[in-house]
Specification:
alpha/beta; eight-stranded mixed β-sheet; 15 strands
Length: 646
């Protein structure tokens, strides 16, 4: 009940009832185990169980307060890295001290009562009754779940399938969610999607967008599109590699692998378009910016971000969904074009896989010098394993990147010390994971916020919102320095920059987010709305109004650079292609050009003037299930090594 109140989950729902029933089963099981002990030993068993439950609820309470989701068993096994953010955790604990005391009330009461008297020895008859009650209560609860609603994110779906942790806690309760997560982690069970269709329906061949004047001048000696003749548009070709799926299906050693080949061969590839090769041969700088948001774009406070947004591709309906492992999963989506697998750290798990479609590997094969940098601990989230595998020479704090040891560290310093290395060879590709925008957003414990405090002093916001904007000023100054260095090196006109966030600024209290937005931010869709920047000096600005997400970054960049890639093997789309837009959220809500579907309320809201068939939501939901499933299988089966690794 306390967790529901703090996390804004619906309170009086059937999920609270299921949570209570499962809590009853847990109570009976602990009581049964304790019955085999007497006196102090029995107190120790029950006290230990209550202490464990209290610890789980306290830790999940604080985790949700920071990340707005719940941690998994896999993340708990790697909790040692949290020590680096110990001050943030302690701060959240102090902020929520009253709530945490409430969570400890059952343990406090038990300690007070049980030290005053001891229970009598329990006989086998009573144990049998307790065990029978536990079995009956569990059976009845499972029958109720099975006989009830079986729709997406229902109690049935979250119990027997797999989905968003927040939805599972809402429908089943925290303890049951963690039990299921532990079971799935140990046994490897997964939600099975609808079977892949034999073939995808043909798409409208009419291109969705015209990009006008294509680009600033390409690198010396390299035409923007060698296949294009003056006055004639090139014939569109499919963005697909020569993969013999028929042979692969015949040679598959399992039904799972055969279904993977069937699914990917049946997907309609995107085609080249007027944006193809717009940045062919260009140098490329790619940034995943910590907690960056469109709220930070301001002509006075952040003039460089404002210029890049105004003078580049402007995406007015871009979303950066929050996945299970916050920053790491955000990086994974932006750099691989795949949906993260739940319960694991997908980025580090990919470190042993072939990742030929990652930009580092794609461009390294073309002779680019490829670098990656992170201005915090180099092995945090296992980046020392994942990033070299993505095709980069990687440096962070501790393995070659030297910046001042502050918290957080400065993005300006990172750009300052790395650009001499990046600019020494052309063509180059540099990837940056920034950290200056990291929580907590205050002027006492955040070095970057304190550094830029005077620049936000007069703003009409509370301390948290102003501190957040102060951290984003550091990102803006870093981009300003980057562009100055590109100018000094004479490569600005043949270098393009892409920037997106890892996630929305979840370190901000909801009240502060509402302040920055100027209204109450809707929590299922608008909360994840953000900004994607694609910019090159001298390019013709363009506004893209279609729904776009971070899954679309890799296929879009691949197309803009005129690379050979297979769009069927990525979970997003080239935004300039004819492919229908689809924004997928972790709880399996979605946005398309026809409307938006809230999986928690199961309501579809069509766009004005749009008519959709009756089975539209079901069809899109089934495809989303397939994308979650087959994206996880790419990771588990090292699928790229089977079909495209060279």
């Amino acid at each position: 009940m306390v967790l529901r109140l703090q996390s804004d989950l619906p309170f009086f729902t059937i999920g609270l009832g299921y949570a209570a029933l499962f809590a009853g089963v847990t109570t009976l099981v602990v009581s049964l185990l304790a019955s085999f002990f007497v006196g102090v030993a029995r107190d120790v068993v029950v006290g230990a169980a209550l202490a464990l439950v209290t610890m789980l609820f306290v830790s999940q309470f604080i985790y949700h307060d920071i990340f707005t989701t719940f941690y998994t068993v896999f993340s708990a096994m790697h909790a040692g890295q949290v020590v680096e953010f110990g001050d943030d955790v302690v701060g959240k604990g102090l902020d929520n001290a009253g709530w945490l005391v409430l969570l400890a009330v059952p343990l406090i009461i038990f300690v007070g009562v049980r030290t005053s008297r001891r229970g009598a020895r329990v006989g086998w008859r009573q144990r049998g009754i307790t065990a029978g009650l536990a079995v009956a209560l569990l059976t009845g609860t499972l029958l109720a779940i099975s006989w009830g609603d079986r729709g997406q994110n229902s109690a049935y779906d979250t119990y027997y399938g797999e989905g968003d942790p927040v939805a599972s806690v809402d429908r089943l309760g925290l303890m049951t969610t963690m039990r299921l997560d532990l079971t799935r982690t140990l046994l490897g069970s997964e939600r099975r999607p609808a079977p892949p269709p034999a073939a995808m329906s043909p798409r409208d061949p009419t291109p969705r967008g015209q990009v006008g004047n294509p680009s600033p001048p390409p690198a010396s000696g390299q035409p923007a599109d060698p296949g294009r003749t003056a006055g004639a548009a090139p014939t569109p070709v499919e963005n697909a590699l020569d993969i013999d799926f028929e042979r692969l299906m015949a040679e598959a050693d399992s039904d799972e692998l055969r279904n993977m080949h069937l699914y990917f061969s049946g997907r309609e590839p995107t085609r080249t378009n007027e944006a193809t090769g717009m940045f062919k041969g260009y140098n490329f700088v790619f940034l995943t910016a910590e907690a960056y948001s469109h709220y930070a774009v301001n002509p006075v406070l952040t003039p460089t971000l404002h210029k890049m947004t105004r003078d580049g591709f402007s995406f007015t309906d871009f979303y950066n969904p929050l996945w299970g492992v916050s920053t790491s999963d955000g990086e994974y989506v932006a750099t691989t074009g795949l949906i993260p697998k739940s319960r694991v750290w997908s980025m580090v798990k990919s470190g042993d896989n072939a990742m030929p479609l990652a930009m580092g590997n794609q461009l390294r094969r073309l002779g680019y010098a490829t670098y990656a940098y992170h201005n915090h601990t180099y092995d945090y989230y296992g980046r020392d394993i994942s990033h070299p595998n993505l095709g980069y020479e990687y440096k962070g704090v501790g393995n070659g990147l030297k910046v001042a040891k502050t918290w957080p560290e400065s993005d300006v310093e990172m750009i300052d010390v790395t650009t001499p290395e990046v600019l020494q060879n052309e063509p180059f590709h540099a990837y940056y994971m920034t950290v200056s925008g990291h929580l907590e957003y205050n002027f006492g414990g955040n070095f970057i916020a304190a550094k830029n405090r005077s620049l936000v002093a007069g703003l009409p916001y509370g301390d948290a919102a102003r501190a957040y904007l102060a951290t984003q000023i550091e990102l803006d100054r870093a981009l300003e320095l980057l562009m100055d260095r590109l100018e000094e090196a004479g490569v600005a006109e043949r270098t393009f920059i892409v920037l997106s966030a890892d996630h929305y600024p979840y370190g901000l209290p909801k009240k502060a987010l509402d302040e920055l937005a100027g209204h109450q931010v809707e929590s299922n869709f608008e909360l994840f709305k953000s900004s994607l920047i694609i910019y090159a000096k001298g390019m013709q600005p363009r506004t893209i109004t279609e729904p776009v997400s971070s899954l679309d970054i890799i296929p879009t960049i691949s197309n803009l650079m005129g690379l050979e890639f297979d769009s069927r093997l990525l979970m997003g789309r080239d935004v300039f292609s004819e492919a229908d837009p689809l924004v997928i959220f972790n709880n399996r809500s979605f946005i398309t050009d026809k409307g938006r579907y809230n999986s928690m309320t199961r309501e579809f809201t069509p766009r004005p003037g749009r008519q959709v068939p009756g089975d539209y939501v079901q069809a899109i939901s089934e495809e989303i299930d397939r994308r979650f499933y087959y994206s996880a299988r790419i990771l588990d089966r090292d699928y790229y090594r089977v079909v495209v690794a060279r």
